[in-house]
Amino acid sequence: MINSKRIIVVLPAYNASKTLKKTYLEIPFDIVDDVVLVDDNSVDETLQVAKELGIKHVLKHQKNKGYGANQKSCYKKALSLDADIVVMLHPDYQYSPKLIHSMAYLIANDVYKVVIGSRILGKGAISGGMPIYKYVANRFLTLFQNIVIGQKLSEYHSGYRVFSKEVLNTLYLECNSDDFIFDNQMICQIFNKGYEIAEITCPTKYNKESSSINFRRSLIYGFGVIKVSFQYFLHKNKIKNFELFK
Predict the structure, then answer these.
(1) DSSP letter string, 23-40
(2) Dihedrals φ, ψ of 21, to 5°?
(3) What pairing do the DSSP bridges indicate for beta strands 7-13 and 85-88?
């Protein structure tokens, strides 16, 4: 805990058997109270590794539902365990668990309600091996979204996020996609509710074990980002209402 606030780390897992242990062992259990792992019907030994590590709260989807659906299960379980602060950490070791202290303290001390680990602040993305086409797409889409929705984030696409219970209870997450665009929808929902988002520089590691979507799915995600941005703009300016932002 920090300031009597219960901290739970959620691990949305899919085929993470090779990196789960390394990720788990770097979680700072001096402040983290519990860990939830949701396995999205992996075909490797993810569940076995989770059990060997002694992760108490392990859920398994009986079919592969998608990255967004995995997060929905993660947050629902964390809130049922009375989490005050929820850390969403990928178990593929792309993001450093050592940043949990810094990110969680910003929320526990009531400075922000949401904190994102940004790969773009500094040179973490390029030095960590992010493919050039993804870096360029990230910068373009971020600039586009900042203009359309009137914000100023360094990136909208990081999967390393920490939330207060208040935010998770406020957002209509069940309306969001079960696919990768879930992350972007969630950020737009957060801004629509009037919350600010803090960013902290995050070193990143890209390797063959790190989860990553291919070029075709990256294109689908990019068009999804553009769609969500325009939906936010139309809703915020009272031109058209969308269930996503209710």
Answers:
(1) HHHTS-TTT--EEEEEE-
(2) -60, -45
(3) parallel
No. of helices (H) and no. of strands (E), the chain? 9, 7
Spatial neighbors of 234 by CB under 8 A, at least 6 apart, are 240, 242
What pLDDT, on a 0 to 100 scale, did the predictor assign at position 211? 60
Query: Distances in Å between the alpha carbon of 97 and those of 15, 24, 26, 225, 241?
Result: 19, 8, 6, 27, 38
Interatomic CA distance for residues 209 and 44, integer angstroms: 12
- Tell how far CA 194 is from the center of its chain: 19
The answer to whether the CB of 124 falls within 8 A of the CB of 204 is yes
Q: Tens of pLDDT along 118-174? A: 999 987 777 788 888 889 999 999 999 999 999 999 999 999 999 999 999 999 999
pLDDT in tens, 25-59: 999 999 999 999 999 999 999 999 999 999 999 99
Phi, psi of 197 (to 5 degrees): -120, 125
CA 169 to chain centre: 16
Read off the tokens for 64. 């592969």
- Kindly report the pTM of this predicted structure: 0.94
User: Where do the domains of the chain lie, and which CATH numbers do they carry?
Assistant: 7-245 (3.90.550.10)
Model confidence pLDDT, tens digit, residues 77-112 = 999 999 999 999 999 999 999 999 999 999 999 999
What does the pLDDT look like over 53-66, one tens digit per residue?
999 999 999 999 99
2: which DSSP letter? B
